[in-house]
Design a protein that fits this description.
By secondary structure, the chain is an alpha/beta fold. Strand 6, helix 7 and strand 7 form a beta-alpha-beta unit. The radius of gyration is 22 Å and the shape is globular. The chain contains 14 helices and eleven strands. It folds into two domains: 166 residues, 3-Layer(aba) Sandwich (D-Maltodextrin-Binding Protein, domain 2), CATH 3.40.190.170; 129 residues, Bacterial extracellular solute-binding protein, family 7 (D-Maltodextrin-Binding Protein, domain 2). The longest helix is centred in the C-terminal third of the chain and has 35 residues.
Length: 338
């Protein structure tokens, strides 16, 4: 076979898979490749993690001159969240896009963010993130979990209930199996709200709803839309019981082995993406709720004060069991606005 024929075959083969070639070339030239994992779906419009990631990638390229690149693994591709946390601690996974609740089992102080009705809204949470107590939590995450959470972002909305039935008050939830995060504080919050809290991994929710193992779940509207949970449950009640942080958790081992200039560029990209994501989040939540309604979901409000009164005793109980969280609790109370 002549070189001319060989060259022609190579060109044709490259043209056939042209969409795949540029990323491969980019990865080959990058000095550092990072694995980014999330349990969230790969939806560019309503997935918290995918929206954040799409903002992050160009900022990372700009801040590292293209010397750091990433591979994105949504939809639990690298395992359930608890498994990925172990990989983050070992430096096998470099970055995890997730909320704080899954870290509570390792860093109990994170449970502050899971306490129902402690935070008024995301602006309240943002004020807390700027306190000395928040800095101490960041240090605890590195010390206990081997993970950095340098910039607190927000989910695309508060956590609410999606159910197969309508409800307005705690009594209506009696005996109803509502999926909660496998996290003791969230589970107890859902139980105090009146439901039979059912801890379950994120990747098992859809089949649990289909099979009747669950009567509903609690999550934010964009995630419910992106994960298509609305296909099996048609009532979305605005309980707005939890506002917790979301963002990039970075492996300490990864940061330690990166050259200083690349590490600085990575952290700058994380900050810029988190800020942009925060600014866009409210509009995404509003759009997701509207989309749920067009898909046959009934959206209803409720008297949140009734649920808040039932959950509030958990705050002091949590403080007694987790004295290290008292500074964060105090910061939350001190930054409330009437």
């Amino acid at each position: 076979m002549t070189d001319r024929h060989l060259t022609r075959r190579v060109i044709l083969a490259g043209a056939a898979c042209g969409l795949a070639v540029p990323p491969l070339i980019g990865r080959a030239r990058a000095a550092t490749m990072l694995k980014v994992s999330t349990s969230f779906p790969n939806d560019p419009n309503f997935s918290t993690a995918r929206i954040w990631y799409d903002m992050f990638v160009p900022k990372l390229k700009a801040n590292t001159d293209g010397r750091v690149a990433t591979s994105f693994f949504p939809d639990n591709q690298l395992g359930q969240e608890a498994d990925v946390i172990s990989q983050v601690r070992m430096g096998v996974v470099d970055m995890m896009l997730v909320g704080t609740p899954i870290w509570t089992n390792i860093v109990p102080e994170c449970g502050v963010f899971d306490l129902g009705y402690l935070f008024q809204d995301y602006e309240h949470l943002k004020r807390v993130s700027q306190t000395p107590a928040a800095d101490e939590l960041r240090k605890a995450l590195v010390r206990k979990a081997g993970a950095h959470f340098p910039y607190w972002g927000r989910n695309l909305g508060a956590r609410n209930f999606l159910t197969k039935f309508a409800f307005r008050q705690p009594a209506d939830l009696t005996g109803k199996k509502i999926r909660s995060l496998p996290n003791p504080i969230v589970t107890e919050t859902v139980r105090l709200m009146g439901a039979a809290a059912t801890p379950m991994a994120f990747g098992e929710i859809y089949t649990g709803l289909q099979a009747g193992v669950l009567d509903g779940l609690e999550h934010d509207a964009p995630t419910i839309l992106a994960s298509k949970f609305f296909e099996t449950a048609k009532y979305f009640t605005l309980t707005r019981h939890i506002y917790n942080p979301f963002g990039a958790f970075l492996s300490d081992r990864t940061l330690q082995r990166m050259p200083a200039d690349q590490r600085d560029g990575l952290l700058k990209a994380v900050k810029d993406a988190t800020d942009e994501h925060y600014d866009k989040a409210q509009a995404v939540e509003t759009g997701a709720i509207e989309q749920l309604q067009t898909r046959g979901v009934t959206v209803e409000d409720c008297d949140r004060s009734v649920f808040r009164d039932r959950v509030r005793p958990l705050w002091s109980e949590f403080a007694q069991k987790t004295p290290g969280a008292r500074p964060l609790l105090d910061a939350a109370h001190q930054t409330e606005q009437s």
